[in-house]
Specification:
- The chain is mainly alpha-helical.
- The chain has two domains: 72 residues, Multidrug-efflux Transporter Regulator, Chain: A, Domain 2 (Orthogonal Bundle), CATH 1.10.1660; 90 residues, no CATH class.
- Helices cover 68% and strands 4% of the residues.
- It contains nine helices and three strands.
- Strands 1-3-2 form a three-stranded antiparallel sheet.
- Strand 2 and strand 3 form a beta hairpin.
- The longest helix is centred in the middle third of the chain and has 30 residues.
- It is elongated and about 80 Å long.
């Protein structure tokens, strides 16, 4: 059995975080001593490990509680929603990065050649000898072999949602 301070140290949390987890019913200690000290069992530590994993992935506490209370039945929908949210955050950050680069108005101030945008990608493909038909086949195969990766790649180029949807729909209709 571990005390609240030992559990806090072990997981890199504050004591008040564990008290909060107890208050909301996310992680309650298995034992309370006569002096009302909280003691955590091995099962409590295993539950805390699960909570820590979800929190490190950015899953909100309410969703962590939902996963745990449903014995994992809600896992896929919660993680899928978090992944969609994360991808949206990444897209927004890429847009902010592009905006800052544009504001600098001087590529020399930007130490790397990132970000890769649509125009640069097309220029790279053309330089590699690809024509329009080759690029279309590239999209069709990318969509067929790795649809989610195709989505991520198109978003990474800074394309808006409508253009990404159009490209993916076209690509999947040709395969």
């Amino acid at each position: 059995m571990l005390t609240i301070s030992q559990v806090a140290r072990r997981f890199g949390l504050s004591r008040s975080t564990l008290l909060y987890y107890d208050r909301i019913g996310l992680l309650s200690p298995s034992v309370r001593t006569e002096s009302n000290y909280r003691l955590y069992s091995q099962a409590d530590l295993e539950r805390m490990e699960i909570i820590a994993t979800y929190r490190e992935s950015g899953v909100p506490l309410a969703d962590v509680a939902l996963i745990l209370s449903s014995k994992g039945a809600k896992l896929a929908p919660v993680l899928t929603a978090r992944l969609a949210s994360l991808r949206d955050e990444i897209r927004k950050l890429r847009n902010q990065e592009r905006a800052l680069i544009d504001l600098l108005e001087n590529r020399a101030l930007h130490p790397t050649e990132r970000p890769l945008d649509k125009a640069r990608w097309i220029a790279i493909l053309r330089a590699a000898g690809m024509n329009d038909d080759d690029m279309e086949r590239w999209h069709i195969e990318f969509e067929r072999l790795c649809a989610a990766g195709h989505q991520d790649f198109l978003e990474s180029l800074g394309l808006d949602r409508d253009e990404v949807t159009r490209i993916r729909q076209w690509s999947s209709s040709k395969s």
